[in-house]
Amino acid sequence: MKITFLTVGKTEDAYLKEGIDKYVKRLKYYTKLELVDLPELKNTKALTEQQQKAKEAEMILKKISPLDHVILLDEKGMELTSKQFAAFIDKKSISSTSSLVFVVGGPYGFDPSVYDRANDKLSLSRMTFSHQMIRLFFTEQLYRAFTIIKGEPYHHE
User: Which SUPFAM superfamilies does UniProt cross-reference here (predicted)?
Assistant: First the structure.
């Protein structure tokens, strides 16, 4: 199963990049992971929030195929423990899902067209984090999920 982590904007802070790289390297042993950073919109001062979300939606939807199972990282999404997230990933793998696409939107969230395309929504916390931090948290949780699935000692109860 291929996993794509699709984000709007780049990770700029070196310490976050270093952490993300650490988990991406570790994930190579478990799954094919592709990181796709879409460019941030330029000259947004003249655009409303809705116009920005619509332009981001165009970029996001171009990167998603009809067969992809799309999960939005969204504050209103399902809240799972690490074990439940591992079970979710494992279930998708067993059910012959060939491609999971996890999506982090821009600063204002997602356009309705992206919500319409999504198969699931996942919340990493009830708290609000920067989009850059979410990238690190997600890659760590994805790594943790695979170690749980494989019964490896990374995760402690």
Answer: alpha/beta knot
* CATH homologous superfamily, domain 2-149: SPOUT methyltransferase, trefoil knot domain (3.40.1280.10)
Q: Where are the domains of the chain?
A: 2-149
Residue ranges at the known binding site for S-adenosyl-L-methionine: 73, 105, 124-129
**pTM for the predicted model, two decimal places:** 0.95
Per-residue pLDDT of the chain (157 residues; tens, 9 = 90+): 999 999 998 888 999 999 999 999 999 999 999 999 999 888 888 889 999 999 999 999 999 999 999 999 999 999 999 999 999 999 999 998 999 999 999 889 999 999 999 999 999 999 988 888 999 999 999 999 999 999 999 988 7
φ, ψ of residue 144 to 5 degrees: the values are: -60, -40
Known binding residues: 73, 105, 124-129
Which of 110, 135, 4 shows the shortest CA–CA distance to 64?
4
